[in-house]
Amino acid sequence: MNNKVYFTPGPSELYPTVPQHMQEAMAQKIGTISHRSKQFQEIYAGAESGLRKLLQLPDEYEVFFVASATEVWERAIQNNVQRESFHLVNGSFSKRFYETAKELGREAQLHEVPFGQGFDVESINVPETAELVALIQNETSSGACLPVEDINRFREKASDDALIYVDAVSSLPYPAFDYTLVDSVYFSVQKCFGLPAGLGVWLVNDRCMAKARALQESGLSIGSYHTLPTLLEKALVSQTVETPNVLNIYLLGKVLEDMNRKGVATIRQETEAKAAQIYTFLEQSTVFSPAVENPKHRSKTTIVANTSIPASEVNSHLAKYDLQVGSGYGKYKDSQIRIANFPAHSMEQVERLLEKLRELEN
Amino acid sequence: MNNKVYFTPGPSELYPTVPQHMQEAMAQKIGTISHRSKQFQEIYAGAESGLRKLLQLPDEYEVFFVASATEVWERAIQNNVQRESFHLVNGSFSKRFYETAKELGREAQLHEVPFGQGFDVESINVPETAELVALIQNETSSGACLPVEDINRFREKASDDALIYVDAVSSLPYPAFDYTLVDSVYFSVQKCFGLPAGLGVWLVNDRCMAKARALQESGLSIGSYHTLPTLLEKALVSQTVETPNVLNIYLLGKVLEDMNRKGVATIRQETEAKAAQIYTFLEQSTVFSPAVENPKHRSKTTIVANTSIPASEVNSHLAKYDLQVGSGYGKYKDSQIRIANFPAHSMEQVERLLEKLRELEN
Question: The Aminotransferase class V domain covers which part of the protein (chains A, B) (predicted)?
Answer without folding.
Answer: 7-328
